[in-house]
Every structure is written in C-alpha cells, then in structure tokens.
Sequence to fold (682 residues):
Amino acid sequence: MWEYTDKVMDHFLNPRNVGIIDDADGRGEVGSLSCGDALTLTFKLGEDGRISDVKFKTFGCASAVASSSILTEMIKGMTIEEAQKVTNQDIVERLGSLPDQKMHCSVMGQEALEAAIDDYYTKSGKARSPKQEVKVICTCFGVTDTEIKKVVAENDLTTVDEVTNYCKAGGGCGGCKMEIEELIKEVQGSRAKIEHVVIEKPKKLTNIQKIQLIQQTINDQIRPMLRADGGDIDLIDVDGNNVIVAFRGMCAKCRMSEFTMKDVVEARLREFVSDDLNVTEQKDSHN
Amino acid sequence: MRLKGGEMNTVYMDNNATTMVAQEVIQEMLPYLGNLYGNPSSMHSFGGQVGRKIAQARQSIASLLGCSPEEIIFTSCGTESDNTAIRGMLATHPNKRKIVTSRVEHPAVLSTCRELEHHGYSVAEVGVDKDGRLNLDELNHCIDDDTAVVSIMVANNETGVVFPIDEIAAIAKAKGVTFHTDAVQAIGKIPIDLNKSNNIDMLSLSGHKLHAPKGVGVLYVRKGTRLSPFMLGGHQEAGRRGGTENVPGIIALGKACQLAADHIEEENTRVAKLRDKLENAILQSCPDSFVNGDTKNRLPNTTNISFEYIEGESILLMMDKFGICASSGSACTSGALEPSHVLRAMGVPFTAAHGSIRFSLSRYNTEDQVDFIAEKLPPIINCLRELSPFVSTSG
Fold:
C-alpha cells in the first residue's frame, strides 16, 4: 500500500476542476492507455491575460489524479509566462510529497501544462523559441533526451533509477540505461552516480589470474551443484585454454558425466572466465 | 462497511492474497507458542510430544491431499516449495537443461525459471487462449528429451481459471518427465486427490491461503521421485529440508487442512453462489465491464472483472474508503510496463487490463457483504469514468 499524504488523498477523492473546456485557448494531451496513465489539460485565458478557467481529465492512479487536480488550482490566475515556470517539483511540494515510484505522475502534470501552452502559442500564432531537435531515448515509454535532461536538472537526479521514477525512462526493457547514464553525466558532470549496468567479463587475464578465476568458478558455481548429486570435481591442470578436470564420487561413475562436463562445467567457465575455454576430463584418475 | 456504532468494518474479499487465520487453528497452535516449546528432534519427552503432534499434522495434510504422510515435506511457504521442486529437479538431472512452464504462472515459478535462464537453462513458457485456457498442443510440443521438469499450476491466482491438471500431468508422464504443480490457490477450494491424480509427482501448497498463518508451506513429493534438497542443514524432514521445524505453523496447517476437508463442499456451493451473485450484480450495474477468464473452469471463490478506461489502483483506493479489500492486476509503478502478465498473456487489451479488479471470497464472507459491495462499487466506477479522458461525458 502506498503512503499518500492527506493532501494527495483529498485531491484524489475530491478532484477539483474535472472536465474539458470545449473552446479552450490551450489543450495539452500526454500519456496513453498502454503506458498506464494519461492526462488531458485545457485552459482558457481571461481578458486580463490570466488563466481564468482550467479543467483536466486523468486516467491513472491516485497520485496521477491528485497531481493533475492540484496543478489546476495552482495555475488558475497565472499569466502564461508564470505558468511556464511551474515545475514538477512545485506540484510535489504542494502535495506534501509523493512516493519515489510515483514521481512520474507529477512530471506528467507538468508536461501536460507545457503541451497546453505550446498549443496556445500555435493557435494564437505567437512566436515561440524554435523547438530543439529531440531524440527518443526510451522507446518503451517514448521519453526524449530533452525530457530526461529536464527532470535530471529540475529534481537534481544522479542515478538511472531516479530518472526511471521521475519520467519512466528505462523502466520497460531497460535497453536505454546506458544512454540515460550519458545524459545524467552531461547535466550533472562528476556528480552523476554511475553504476555499471553491464556485467563485464575480465578482459585480459594473466595465466595466474585465469587459473585462480577458474578455480573460484568451480568452487562457487559448479561444485555445490555436483555435490548435491553425490559427486565432486577437481581441477587438474590448465594448459592454455584447455582446462583439465576430474570427476569424483557419483559423477565419475555416471554414464552421463560427459554431458555434465560439456553442458555444465564448460558453460559456467565460459560464462564467468573466458569464451574460448575448452574442458576435457582426465579419465584415468584414481578414485 | 459501517456498523451501527458508525465504525468501519472490513469487507475482506482478497482471499487469494491471504486469508484470515481460523479461530480453531489459532487455538490449536497456541500451546506450541507457549508452554510446549520443545524441539521435536530432541531426545527427551518434552520435545518428543511436539514431534508426535507434528506427525498428526502431517497425517491431516496427507488425508486432505490423498497421499501418505512420508510424501509431505514442510517448507516455509509456497515460494520455497516451488523453488525446491524446480531447482531440486534440475540438480538431479544435470544432463537435462530445459524447464517447461506456462506464461501465467505465479512469480514464484516464473521468476525462478527466468533466473535459471541466465544460468544456461532453457525455459519454454506455454501460452493460453483469450479465456486463460492452456494450449495443450503447445505443451505437448514443448516437452522434449532435454526437459528436466514440467511445472504448471492447478489454478490461476489472478483469474481463478482451473487447468485440466490430470490431462496436463499425463502429457508430461507420457514423455517420461517429472511433473510439478503449484496448487497454492487450489487446495481447500477444489478437491485434489493425489491417489487418483497419480501423474502428479510434486505439488506445492501454502498455509496462509487456507486459513493457517503465514510462514508455512508444503512440498508433496511422490514416493520414488529423486529430488536434491534445496535447503541443507539438519536431518529434519528425512534430510530433504534442513532447518528446525516451524512447529506452531505446521500444527496450524494440520488443523487448517482438517477444516478445509470439512468445508470443501461449502466452498463449492455457498461461496460459489455468493461469488456468482457479486459478479452478476457488478456486471449488470457497471457498463463496459466484463469477466476475465474461463467461467466454466474456475475456482468457486474468484472473479476477475475488467472495468474499461479506468485504472485499477484508483478503484482499490476508493473501495478502501468503505473498508472493501480486493486487489488489482495493475500496478502503477514507474517500472511496470505490463499491467498484469496473466491478462496480457490472455490478450486482454490495455484499455481493460489496467482496470482489472479481483474479488476472492472465503467461507467467512456473507451475503450482506456482497450486497454492500454491489451497492458501493457502481458510483466509484462512475466517478472514475467521469475523470477519464477516454470516456466522453458531459461536463
């Protein structure tokens, strides 16, 4: 169960300004059904140039509804210039707080507002600084580099997990995590906390290192499995890429030991030590 | 649910998540949390009396399942039972590298299999049709000489759909492959007789799904099935699962199984009727709602209903205001792209999968509670539809 503030629950259970203004001056739509949340925000300007009416419709969880609802209260009475300055952090502050994994709900509110303002500028033919070229980084949720850099800067984010919490990027297949890291570095410089996403095999090993790693892999990864079956394994020698082992106990007598060796020992050693290892069995060992 | 005094009463319809511990079960286990704290392995009669009580519990469980007491291994939960069955079977067949399972298994099985995939095993996940029925032809096709174990659940936790487990087990057996089933949702709700279902080699059950406390489970292993232990330690459970027994939990489970045997008729008559009443009332009063899963082959206590264009967590939170407890397949977190792997495997569209709610009843539910939900739910659905940008409403 999520820990929501009273303010979040109030705006979720009694949402303000629900609906759609048909003759709106600005209309922004973000999100989609497949993403799990979506928001339509419409506003109308008064004669004084301030937002006189604003309405929203949201598909999503309690924090998505509450973020949208409180946003409408916040921007009513603002000029376009003032509304442009509203960040997702402002929404979170007004709500008290949001759980980490729900931060993207506040970002969605801010993005809908931005889309509605863009729409207003387009409709009224007013010039606005030309949009930069954007590149989609997270294809699962359709998040661009500009959006990622914005949440990183505005919320002072330093890790990929935080970026995922704030704008969903990286939360699907995870294939874009390296690119997200690069963007964090671009914004935060040395403050970026980069965890190695890819497990790397050791690159160049000396003979001693290789033998130690083979022995360690046999001890940790292979021996427990064989022992569970009443068998055991000994490392006899390492000759270049040729690893010579002997099977003991049940394994030595087992007709299947050739399969055991090929499929288990070799696969594990290739996985953890080096792709070009070959394993052979010393058959004439004494038991 | 409001009582006369005005305080909130819980209407608990989330029994596939966990169940209330039966009063009789609490009474049965209490002495073993108190004075009778001996270790059943000890060489004194103070511990020995506990050992005898565990033997009785083992007998009650064996009676419910139609097996012999030596075939019961106590574990800490359903997840441990599933892990033991799958990993233990792979360890005893080091020459075989494949696991066959289904796309709709509980994470206890699916996550285990997917993790094993990273260690060089191959996993075949058999699909289901739009009603959640397993594709038996695909299953038959997937099992080959390299397969160490087939693990397919009896009943699905989200939809309640019941698989033809004897037919499935027979397919595995015909190919000479060990068959495991996660029966966590089925035990106590539908009859299982392992004496008759003699192609099931291993079966997992969990105490807290049938009115015993959390922290106790069982792995049934048919006599003659070779299985490496998963948890190593002392000689408990005949060396098949080390670790000092969860004595109160095991005794509680024994009592709960006895009660389950007494009440299984009621589950399939009174509880099923309550479920049907609830389901029909909701379908009639809420437009754009439908049931997920094969209603002909389903647990008597479960209904999974999709409400189109709205989101599950919102429905749950609004019901929570009235003390109504249910659950949703949808989880709105940053990392969750798919709403529910079960509903997605069935091809339920996103418009409906995000708004799925599972009600799961027990013998402790009443008709008044069903009426209460039938009254409170439609306004909640309406309210959220008015908020949804995918529904056009005036205003």
Observations:
- The mean pLDDT of chain A is 84.
